[in-house]
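Worked example 2:
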Amino acid sequence: MKSHQITIIDIAKALGISKSTVSRALTGNPNIKSETMEAVIEMAKKLDYQRNLHAISLITRKSNTIGIIVPEFLSSYFPKVVIGAQAAATAAGYNVIISQSNETYATEVANTQVMLANQVDGIIVSMTKETLNYDHFKIFQRKGIPIVFFNRVCDEMAVPKVMVDDYDGAFKAVEHLLSTGKRRIAHLAGPNSLSMSVRRLNGYLDALKKNNIPIDEDLIIPYDLTIGKVKIYVNHLLQLKHPPDAIFAINDPTAIETILVIKKIGLRIPQDIAIVGFSNDYISSIIEPSLTTLSQPVEKIGETAITLLLDQMNRNVSDWKAVTKVLKTDLVIRNSTVASLL
């Protein structure tokens, strides 16, 4: 038996009204009487009517959909951001399309094209480590579609951004290591293409300067966040004439891989070498020894990004505000830096 997709025509026939009245009622037209709107909605539920979002978007010029683009789902950071963002979007009555770029620029460009094809009303984005050209994001601006960056932001575009205080977090991490007696603190840094990496590097450098610790360029290694390379860099640091007694890593996945490499070598953590990460990934409390790290309000980041996006969506393009929200981090001290906690 051939299935029948319920349409506004079926609702109109059931109520004895025109399909245009049903259409206006379903899209919340203020000119429709409240009792008519209630009757239409009730009948739509009774008939199990599923809205044709594409058709509605043609009428209202809105898809009632928000896009979310993240660089990866390997760590717990971005899934938690998405949870916060989706909750905020749903509470505001919006559907969500989520895509991840697998840390590749080409996939990110393809993801933006999918968002445009689906006529999203706005997007929130965290860029890939490869992204150096932003033309695919600027298309949204030209089309009058709001865009908000979070975590990995585009400094070239005057749009809202949500970040944590990367500089302050890195500064606190290094000062903590210094307070435990460490003096040769290495930094496994992120790529210079990410402003987040630059801010954390600057926090690291300024904490050393404040405490009169000489900067040793041999202890600073920027890398492209490919976890498989961590073993190479850690072994390189340990083979220096004056190896480090601590490592501050750009993020928790890097720090956790560092712990695994050092344990395999046979060094004691934190007695021989201490380690600090950044983000408080769920694995950081499970690994042995547990990882000292900077905790970020991850779900709050997603929620804030959606709040800024909705604000843009409710304004005329000429009144858009390039607001930047900076959230604080908290130092979580665990066994990778303080042996007495064991």
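The CA atoms of residues 66 and 121 lie 6 Å apart. Residues 166-295+331-341 form a domain with the Rossmann fold fold (CATH 3.40.50.2300).
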